[in-house]
Amino acid sequence: MKNLLLPILAIAALPLIPTDTAAQISLYDTDGNVIFSSKETPAYIDFNYNAPTKGEENGHAWVDLGLPSGTLWATCNIGATNPEDYGDYYAWGETQTKTSYDWTTYKWMDPAVNGWKGCTKYQAADGQTDGVWYDSEGNFIGDGKTELETSDDVASQTWGGKWQIPTTEMQQELSSQCYWVWTTTYNGKSVNGYIVYKAKSDADKGAKVTSGSSPSSDYDVATDPHLFLPAAGGRYGSVLNDAGLDGYYWSRSLYPNYSIIAYGLNFRSGYVRDSSADSRSHGFAVRPVVLPAAE
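The structure assignment produced for this chain is given below.
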């Protein structure tokens, strides 16, 4: 919120008003409606600016959940038209959908090497000496990359603008700072997932209201800032698993203790794991973010 104080001297340039006529100051909204009117001369005018809780970046909508970092979250998954749609599924570090999600189809894979041992990009010094990121003497020779580059970030490549896949720290913040309510209906559709509200009190931050529990009456999906994360499941091989039961959402962060795994957000009614880790070859949903503008 920004406060702009306008001294009353600023109105000195206005036409002179006869002394026997009472001056009246009126303020109007953009539709021409009077929102303030007074015949008393003010000492100053205080303009209070409330930042919008909704907006767009490069044609895609975001919501401001009041997070300490200022991170703005997209209202839909990549590939989705509505918040309740599952959208598309991507292997970690890939920017194209496909029909099968496993090591044999993974982009960052040496086909001459068996399975996970052939990961050719995003390699941490994890002690997995069977991988190609170690030489025959057990010395780490990998690239040391633990965060997705822009060229491998499907949010940046698909949506453009300032969009990106969130870091695992951003997902942790979403889990710990918001009020989560499991629902089986959203936007008039029968779909399972979590409504993630901007918390109205410190006591509500990080709370998870699961199936069968009653959410606080202080929260209204029609009026309160929130996003919806559908339980979109995940793709293993050519099969979609756990849709409607679990939600899996990639972060941009590699799991440093095992280079074939990356962090993500995993949930179902009953728990939210904000530092979950899974095989990079699996196909999961992506919910992008916009970073706050630099001050």
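Interim note for the steering committee: The mean pLDDT is 88. The first helix runs from residue 154 to 159.
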